[in-house]
From TrEMBL:
Residues 13-260 form the MmgE/PrpD N-terminal domain. It comes from Gordonia asplenii. This is MmgE/PrpD family protein. Residues 286-443 form the MmgE/PrpD C-terminal domain. Belongs to the PrpD family. Pfam families: MmgE_PrpD_C, MmgE_PrpD_N. It comes from the Bacteria.
């Protein structure tokens, strides 16, 4: 009997070939500028993340792996296997709800891709040039976003899976593969990408259960770290000939689309996805779920820049997509639920302003001003707003009613930080201002200087972040 092999190129293979083309394309000056901003943002939010207990405890936990590799652990003075270093950095980057966002997949690519890029680049061998490293980052972002799109995008969230950890492994794996191929001086093989994605398919993680329980949500911070870790580990195993993997990781009967998302679709044919995915990302000026950034901007409009007081405010109505009703009305009994809770985000913003990041920490959960305002917050689904804009645009609206009958209302489609309403470099730098309260001053200026230095190579960028993390956490962060 003669067996036949189906040689038709499927969705996984087509996407893998596209990713290889992206990885092999030298970054343009515009690409480099975009990635510099993403790196500055990631470095700052990762330092914020290292002020959180969950990130520092996981960093301490990695001491058992000291000496297992050459990748530095963020905020610690030991070296580990790159997958372990990526776990810590990814967790830190996602630990203050400030990391970049790919809106239509509701994922946070930078928190999975950049940690893998730094960790794998620290492996022994020829130093990478800055452009090589940037190309690997761009390819990782492209892979994570397009795998997410191919698997149904936001459908994963509605089915209860967190896209950052789910799709993060696919992107981080591509970044790791690209760096290793560049260092070895060989072409990245699409078949190796396909195999690595088959391995990543067996490592999905990240339940959305954290979003509907008032406590116990700190594991959500770890989701990005798991995505980054799992991607590096998938790339490791892909080099083992005996460890084979499925070819149809995306469109297969039990592939990522069927198991976690919606019907697979050819993301490469979508005219909205023709540009590089790094061009369409959103950065976060506010330390909460991206869904509420338009709400915060609408509050700013309705209150004339937060100059109108709240004493006579009797009703606060927020309207927007169904997902807010499903996953974002949980009472804020932890830092995580505070950053995911519509009533808390609105009340914290009205009480202390939109950039008081520390107002989402445990010390503020029982704040009487926040609790008083939160008791007046309601949410209603706006079907028209959802149908017109969601999920490409996280549009919401607010209506504030005062005791004298005055009503102030505003609607925002594209919040500050989206591709349509981008943050400037100075806006990104301002995210570091509050770190002074944690003993780290001048960090934004130092990071900007090295990131925009055309002569600086990849290793110098990694060293700069590590130096800042050690300064932030001090000698006590290095337990013996």
């Amino acid at each position: 009997m003669t067996s036949t092999v189906d040689t038709t190129e499927g969705l996984t293979e087509r996407l893998a070939r596209h990713i290889v083309r992206v990885a092999e394309t030298p970054p343009s000056p515009h690409d480099t500028e975009v990635v510099r901003r993403l790196l500055l943002d990631n470095f700052i939010v990762s330092l914020w993340g290292m002020t959180r207990p969950a990130a520092t405890e996981i960093a301490d936990w990695t001491k058992r792996f000291a000496g297992s590799g050459s990748s530095p652990v963020l905020g610690r003075d030991w070296l580990v296997d790159p997958s372990i270093a990526a776990l810590v950095h990814g967790t830190a980057a996602h630990s203050f709800e400030l990391d970049d966002t790919h809106n239509s997949t509701a994922s946070h690519p930078g928190a999975a891709i950049i940690p893998a890029a730094l960790a794998v680049a620290a492996e022994p061998g020829r130093p990478l040039t800055r452009d090589e490293w940037i190309a690997a980052i761009i390819a990782g972002y492209e892979a994570m976003a397009l795998v997410g799109e191919a698997a149904g995008g936001m459908a994963a969230v509605h089915r209860g899976f967190h896209p950052t950890s789910l799709f993060g492994a696919f992107g981080a794996a591509v970044t790791a593969l690209t760096i290793r191929a560049l260092r070895a001086g060989v072409a990245l093989d699409p078949a190796l990408v396909v195999k690595t994605w088959g391995l990543a398919l067996s490592q999905p993680s990240g339940s959305m259960q954290f979003s509907v329980e008032p406590t116990g949500g700190e594991v959500k911070r770890v989701h990005a770290g798991l995505g980054s870790h799992n991607g590096v580990r998938a790339a490791d195993f892909a080099a083992l000939p005996a460890v084979t993997a499925p070819r149809l990781a995306l469109e297969g009967t039990y592939g990522v689309a069927a198991s976690f998302g919606a019907a697979p679709r050819d993301a490469l044919s979508d005219k909205h996805l023709q540009d590089r995915q790094i061009y369409g990302l959103s950065l976060k000026p506010y330390a909460c779920c991206r869904l509420f950034h338009s709400t915060i901007d609408a509050l700013a409009i309705a209150t004339d820049g937060f100059t109108v007081g709240t004493a006579d405010l009797i009703d606060i109505l927020v309207t927007g997509p169904t997902l807010i009703a499903e996953q974002h009305m949980t009472p804020a009994e932890s830092s995580m639920t505070a950053q995911y809770s519509c009533p808390y985000v609105v009340s914290s913003t009205l009480a202390y302003g939109p950039t008081a990041y520390d107002s989402y920490t445990e010390e503020y959960l029982d704040d009487p001003t926040i609790l008083s305002i939160a008791s007046r917050v309601r949410f209603e689904v706006d079907a028209e707003l959802e149908r017109t804009h969601y999920p490409e645009h996280f549009a919401t609206a607010v209506r504030l009613t005062y005791a004298d009958g005055t009503v102030r209302a505003a609607e925002v489609v594209d919040s500050v930080g989206t591709a349509q309403n981008p943050m400037s470099v100075n806006d990104i730098r301002a995210k570091a201002d509050g770190l002074a309260r944690h003993g780290l001053t001048g960090v934004a200026a130092r990071l900007t200087s090295i990131l925009w230095d055309d002569a600086a190579q990849q290793a110098e960028l990694s060293t700069a972040l590590q130096r800042e993390s050690l300064t932030l956490l001090g000698p006590s962060s290095h337990p013996g």
